[in-house]
Each structure stands twice: as structure tokens, then as C-alpha cells.
Design brief:
Layout: E1 3-8, H1 13-24, E2 31-38, E3 41-48, H2 51-60, E4 67-73, E5 88-89, E6 95-103, H3 106-115, H4 127-136, H5 141-149, E7 154-162, E8 169-174, E9 179-182, E10 187-190, E11 202-205, E12 210-214, E13 219-223, E14 229-230, E15 235-236, H6 252-258, H7 260-268, H8 287-292, E16 295-300, H9 302-319, E17 323-327, H10 328-331, E18 342-348, H11 354-365, E19 370-374, H12 380-384, E20 387-390, H13 403-422, H14 430-435, H15 439-447, H16 450-460, E21 465-470, H17 473-489, E22 492-497, E23 514-519, H18 525-537, E24 541-546, E25 558-561, H19 570-588
Parallel strand pairs: 16-17, 16-18, 18-19, 19-20, 21-22, 21-23, 23-24, 24-25
Antiparallel strand pairs: 1-4, 1-10, 2-3, 2-4, 5-6, 6-7, 7-8, 8-12, 9-10, 9-11, 11-15, 12-13, 13-14
Bound molecules: 6-O-phosphono-alpha-D-glucopyranose.
6-O-phosphono-alpha-D-glucopyranose is lined by residues 301-304, 348-350, 353, 356, 399-401, 599, 601, 603.
Length: 606
């Protein structure tokens, strides 16, 4: 769960590496560091804290050179500190190593190295790699790194440089992402394409068990186990650097909230016809499996799991197929009973979440077909699914997922309609089909309510505790709303199914406790209004998102109206004010919503 970047070519490596670290900082910001080769010397500069601190330090020190590696860390082994920051070197400063992942057998390796006289300066698992390369080196960095990689157990994307071969970077990949950018007379490696795109759009994606050796003029890939050379397929990045930058917004999260009308269009494009016909050719090969499926198991983490809860409701109600929704970290250990004709559907924005990837593997081990809804093309999860459909939401940088969630909901709706068509389930889809093309325009209208939402955020900014309540699809939405609020504003927010309130949480409601609620489901509207009255009677201050404001005038302290659409589609709209509320509460409290403490965008370790 760290970001790595490496450069070799004619330009100043330090400048390019620093830019790369800024773009990859969403992957971890406990510390940052850089190692650059110049005049047969390795200059390592590293600092606890954000990339900006490293940048300050770099201004004071000479980091010139044309080849180097850099890293932004999300701590696993060892606290955030200068010493634990990457790059790590061996006993002599001949080799420097950066690493994203976890070396599971590092304790055993470290003990062996210590016995051989190696002296360690950090608490990290990564440092063993530097000492191992140092020990293994006999004149060929590729040979040394390959032999070290064969001894490592765990997940890793690693890059190594050495003073002995000063324009070369050797990289290996097992489980965590690593791309090799193939520029003209320059090569750049990184954890994701945003750090490559300014320099080249052509890249290789290293697969598990592969390694690469790059110099300005050459790039070669090999199988780690056999040493066999691989003829890698060149892939092309199809978006621009501008798309990955903030376009004038203060934060990526706010920009990504703003992109949602466009993202809705992008997700629908080519898939939804006005007569309701759904085209998902990426599922052609699994169509028969889906037609015959007896049960679907949705598996995901975080926000993607919350999208999965909406998906469960849609698939069960519209396709009459039983659906279980599981948190991936539970699914992989709970020994799920899956039988013949079960299908697993994984949902992941990044396509790299370790627990979700493990769930894919578990299902496949049990012979269960796996389909995926993923945003990042060619990510690890996408590569391992039997069939995958992409969100087309564009790069999401803000740690708190927004546009990917909305896009997931849109795609889940399309999947529900597709499955219903495939399985000949008849129901009246006319309202849904008529409303789908309106969603993007309605989402734009909701963004116009920002001033009102800022006022609500003002009211909430000094609260320590609040509840989110809802029923049915509104419950799924408030789970996501509460997650958004807590992760970036640090206000404790708990989502409850409204009917469950009186079984405990009601005891915590007192005068002025904010109660955020969504009421869009006609079938339980009256019951929701009763639940709201229960909390209001105990002093709760009601912030109500509803598509029928005229029916809620008397019960809400603050009313946030949303356009009326089919109740199956309302989550796509009702989440937008809740995202804005969280964003503004975070900003008003002085937090950076793009960098919530202790969290990272892409959780590639367990
Ligand atoms: C992290 C991110 C969340 C995301 C979750 C699952 O916790 O901060 O925004 O929902 O991982 O990630 P995925 O990429 O699999 O959707």
C-alpha cells in the first residue's frame, strides 16, 4: 500500500521522481524518500511525513542525477519515521531498494542476515531485501535481484538500483502493481499510470512472478522462476495527465464529486439503449453461466461493498435471484458455502484490494466462476476474473471514493436489467428505463445545492457524534454516507437500519444529536417517518434527504430535496448531498479530505 516510482534517462531524475511521488501520494503518506545515482555514489534522502516535507529537504540537498527510485509509504512494519522510510540500503550504500507490499518471511531472512554480520537500521521488512541483494551481488544486478526474489514470500513490487550499474533499475512484481513506462530513450516505472503518463503512454504491466530490467535505451522482462525472457505486450494509456489532476478544485474529492454527471454518462455509454436493451458484450463468454446461476455472491470492501449492498437489492428484486453480499475480508475466512451454479461478483474501484483479490482466488479454487466490476483497467483483480466489466469512471485519486461508487451503482443497475433479460424475468421496467437517461442531468442539479449543504456542514462541524438512518435501499445509502463522513471529517458517524434504532442506538440520541436520513422508498415511507419522529422526540436534529419534500416539511429540521426517480435508482442521487456534506464538514474542520489520517486509497495488503 505504498507508491513506487523509478526513472532512468537523460533528464534530472530527482524532479521526475518528486512529481511521481506527488501523483502517487494517495497510496500512502507516512513518509517519502528518494535515491538518486550520481558520480558512482548513491544519494538517499528520506523524511517522515508527506511528500512536501521531502520536497523541502530536497531543496537543501544536492539530488542531481539521471537514474533513481522513490517511494511514498503507508506503514506496515515499523512506525512512520525517517529511519523506516524507503529507499533502504544494505550495510554499504551500494544498493537502494523500494518496496510496496509485505515480505512475510522477513523475520527469518533478517535473522540469517544478522548472523552473517549485516547491521540493520530500520524496523521494516523491506530492509532485508537491500542486504540480500548486497550479499548476492557478483557483478550482475539482474542475477542478484532475481535470486533474492526467489527467496521472498509475500506480496511485493520492488525496484533496486546500484552504484555498480548506474543507469539500470531492476524491478520485480508479485501481487502488488508495477508498470514499466517505455519512453523514447528514457524508462520510468510506477505503481500506477498517473506517474507515467506525462512521459509516455506506452507501458508494460508486470504480472506476478515477472521482473524487468530497464536502462534509458532498453527494457527487458523475464520470468523470475525460470529466467526466461518474455515478449511483453505493450499497452497504451488512454487518458491524459489533466484528467488525473484537480482541474482547479481545492481537492480531488471535490473534483470527483463534480465529475459524477459525466461519469454516469460514461458508464452508460454504449451499454444502455433508450428502449431498455442492455449491451454488455464483455459477459458474452459467461452469459450461459449467468443465465443458469442459482445464487450470486457479491464480495467487496469499503465503499465498493456498500455498492454491493445496493446490488444485492437490485438483483434480488429485479432478477429474482438470491444474492449474498460479503465483506471480502470476512468472505475469505468464513469458509463460504458455494455450490454448483453459484457465481461470485467482485466489485473494486482499484482492482488491487488484497482481500478482494483473495476472494477471487478462493472462489476460483472452489471452481466458482468470478465476474468483476472494476474501474482500473488491467488491474490484478480484472486480470484474474473470468469476465470483467469496467466502470469507465476515470482515475479516482481522493481516498474517499465518490465517483466510482456512483458509477458502480449505475453499472449494477445495468447488470440487473441485463440479467433479467438473460433469464427472461418479466417485470415492468418502464419507469427505470425512462429515468436512467435523466440521471446525469439530475446529478448536475443536485450539485447546485452546495450552499445549502455547506450550511448543514456548519451545523455539524462541532458535533462529535451522529447517526445515519434509512430502510431498504436508503439503508445501503446511509451506510455509505456515514462512512464518507467519518473517514474524512473524523466525526463519529454510525449508520443504522431505522427499524433497529430502538434496539440500542436510541439510547445515545440526545438534544441536538444530528440524525441524517434518506427517505426515497415509497413502500416504507410512512414507517420511515415514524422512525424519524421517534428520534426527533428524543431531541435528534433531523437532516432529511428526500424525493418527496412536501411530505416531510413537518418532520425535518433541514430538508434536502432530490429529484424523484424510480426508487431503484434513487441511491445514485441521494448519495450526492451526503458526499458534499462529508466533504464540507471535513474542510470546515480543517482536514484535508484527500488524505484522511490512517487510510489509503488502495489497500494492497491484508
Ligand atoms: C479503501 C479505500 C476505499 C475503498 C476500499 C475498497 O479503503 O479508501 O475508498 O472503497 O479501499 O477499495 P476498492 O479499490 O477495492 O474498491
Amino acid at each position: 500500500m505504498c507508491g513506487i516510482v523509478g526513472y532512468t534517462g537523460p533528464q534530472q531524475a530527482g524532479k521526475i521522481l518528486l512529481e511521481g511521488l506527488h501523483l502517487l501520494e494517495y497510496r500512502g503518506y507516512d513518509s517519502a524518500g528518494i535515491a538518486v545515482l550520481k558520480d558512482d555514489k548513491l544519494k538517499v534522502i528520506k523524511k517522515e511525513g508527506k511528500v512536501a516535507r521531502l520536497e523541502e529537504q530536497l531543496k537543501k540537498e544536492d539530488s542531481l542525477g539521471n537514474c533513481g527510485i522513490a517511494h511514498t509509504r503507508w506503514a506496515t512494519h515499523g512506525k512512520p519515521s525517517d529511519a523506516n522510510a524507503h529507499p533502504h540500503t544494505g550495510c554499504d550504500s551500494d544498493f537502494a531498494v523500494i518496496h510496496n507490499g509485505i515480505i512475510e518471511n522477513y523475520a527469518e531472512l533478517k535473522a540469517r542476515l544478522q548472523k552473517n554480520g549485516h547491521y540493520f537500521t530500520s524496523e521494516t521488512d523491506t530492509e532485508v531485501i537491500a542486504h540480500m541483494v548486497e550479499e548476492a551481488y557478483q557483478g550482475d544486478l539482474y542475477v542478484a535481484v532475481r535470486s533474492v526474489a526467489q527467496q521472498l514470500v509475500g506480496a511485493y513490487a520492488i525496484a533496486v538500483v546500484s552504484i555498480h550499474e548506474p543507469d539500470k533499475i531492476v524491478a520485480v512484481r508479485q501481487e502488488t502493481p508495477l508498470l514499466i513506462g517505455l519512453g523514447n530513450k528514457e524508462k520510468i516505472l510506477a505503481s500506477d499510470p498517473s506517474a507515467l503518463v506525462k512521459y509516455t503512454k506506452k507501458y508494460w504491466r508486470l504480472e506476478n512472478g515477472e521482473m524487468a530490467v530497464i536502462t534509458p535505451e532498453s527494457a527487458e522482462a523475464f520470468v523470475i522462476a525460470s529466467g526466461e525472457k518474455i515478449d511483453k505486450k505493450i499497452q497504451e494509456i488512454d487518458w491524459d495527465i489533466d484528467e488525473a489532476q484537480r482541474s482547479g478544485f481545492d481537492h480531488y474529492m471535490r473534483k470527483e464529486i463534480d465529475e459524477q454527471p459525466e461519469v454516469i454518462e460514461n458508464t452508460l455509454r454504449g451499454r444502455f439503449a433508450k428502449d431498455g436493451t442492455i449491451s454488455l458484450p464483455e459477459f458474452d463468454d459467461v452469459a450461459e453461466t449467468l443465465r443458469q446461476a442459482r445464487k450470486i455472491n457479491i464480495v467487496a470492501c469499503g465503499t465498493s461493498y456498500h455498492a454491493g449492498l445496493v446490488g444485492k437489492y437490485l438483483l434480488e428484486n429485479l432478477c429474482s435471484i438470491p444474492v449474498e453480499a460479503d465483506i471480502a475480508s470476512e468472505f475469505r475466512y468464513r469458509n463460504p458455502l458455494m455450490g454448483d451454479k453459484d457465481v461470485v461478483l467482485v466489485i473494486s474501484q482499484s482492482g488491487e484490494t488484497a482481500d478482494t483479490l483473495a476472494a477471487v482466488r478462493l472462489a476460483k479454487q472452489k471452481g466458482v466462476p468470478v465476474i468483476g466490476i472494476v474501474n482500473v483497467v488491467n488491474s490484478s483483480i480484472a486480470a484474474e476474473c473470468d469476465a470483467v466489466t469496467y466502470l469507465h469512471a476515470g482515475p479516482e485519486i481522493g481516498v474517499a471514493s465518490t465517483k466510482a461508487y456512483v458509477s458502480q451503482l449505475v453499472l449494477l443497475m445495468l447488470m440487473a436489467l441485463y440479467l433479467a433479460q438473460l433469464r427472461n424475468v418479466e417485470f415492468d421496467a418502464s419507469e427505470i428505463v425512462a429515468d436512467i437517461p435523466k440521471l446525469s442531468g439530475y446529478a448536475s442539479e443536485l450539485l447546485q445545492q452546495e450552499q445549502k449543504i455547506i450550511q448543514v456542514a456548519e451545523l455539524m462541524k462541532n458535533k462529535g457524534n451522529c447517526f445515519f438512518i434509512g430502510r431498504l435501499l436508503d439503508y445501503a445509502v446511509v451506510l455509505e454516507g456515514a462512512l464518507k463522513l467519518k473517514e474524512i471529517s473524523y466525526i463519529h458517524a454510525e449508520a443504522k437500519a431505522a427499524g433497529e434504532l430502538k434496539h440500542g442506538a436510541l439510547a445515545l440520541v440526545e438534544d441536538g444529536t444530528p440524525i441524517v436520513t434518506a427517505v426515497t422508498q415509497d413502500s416504507i415511507r410512512d414507517k420511515m417517518h415514524s422512525s424519524i419522529m421517534e428520534v426527533k422526540a428524543r431531541g435528534g436534529s433531523i437532516i432529511l434527504v428526500t424525493d418527496k419534500p412536501e411530505q416531510a416539511q413537518d418532520i425535518a429540521d433541514t430538508l434536502i430535496p432530490i429529484p424523484k426517480v424510480s426508487s431503484y435508482l434513487s441511491p445514485i442521487l441521494s448519495i450526492i448531498p451526503l458526499q458534499l456534506l462529508s466533504y464540507h464538514a471535513a474542510v470546515l474542520r480543517g482536514n484535508n479530505p484527500d488524505r484522511p489520517r490512517n487510510l489509503a486509497k488502495s489497500v494492497t495488503v491484508e
